[in-house]
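Extended Data, record Patatin
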Amino acid sequence: MPAPKVAIACQGGGSHAAFTAGVLAGLFSPAHRDRFVPLALSGTSGGAVCAALAWSGLLARGPDEAVRRLDGFWDELAARDPLEAWLNAWTQLLYALPFTVNASPYAYSPAAEPRLRALLQTWLQPEALPADPAARVRPYLRVGVADVLRGGGAALGGEDSEFSVDDVVASAAVPPLFRAVGARGRLWWDGLYAHNPPIGALLDLPEKPEEIWVIRLNPLARREEPRTVEAIEDRRNEMAGNLPLDEELSGIALVNRLLAAAPVLGERFGYRPVTVREVALPLEELSYASKLDRSAAHLDRLSALGRDLAPRLFDPASVTVRPEG
């Protein structure tokens, strides 16, 4: 049986995307890389960072380079020296306080954006991307962003001549940690306000995926009612982050059911059933503040967990949307 053509969709979640990096590294390891054909990658925020790094590595020198770039980026992002560790600890403390500290990112010089931009310049290596857009489409890349001024969202393509580091930084520009990021003549915020991650854009590709594999960072369910201010805020953020994704997946399930009931629709409109699989970050105890935690121990733990769980995507139990809907 031929390996399925797969589009991998990476949900956003700040530092939790180290788990995504681990899943991708596991999938592109020698043990699993021949079990699927990577047709496309999409992502939002930290998921966009991981998707773009894997995409650029695959284009440059294949799966080993994709893994090298993923590992290198997250290793360098980690707060390892004493000053970085101190600043990281203060960030965790501020976001764990039972009240909000409001400050506009335009009132100070944000440190997050230039650091992210520099790391992406190093590990994405945009200047080394093929000049010919046709050489950037196997796999395709789609980066989710939200339009600050016009509303709505977009899925920016890696094969576009305008593609740059700005696209990926824009996808991660969550306010108020970031100012709005200019790219392609528009102002963008974090794509979680529109597509988290882009799914529909994967179905609009010239070559259609047979399966979509979702790497989910926000838990779908909680066992207990959130009662503290922090727990309520955590759950609110999780639900808001899942809503765009779950709506798009529901749309796929609906189309699959329609095609099963009336196959002529597929023949007439060029639709075909799509299987959706998921692997999810299983650590329910992680708080919103931990999405900002860059400690080496935290990132290394998430990355290792992602590598361990990557093979679950080959398990029949990972299917969340079946071809018959």
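Summary. Residues 5-321 form a domain with the Cytosolic phospholipase A2 catalytic domain fold (CATH 3.40.1090).
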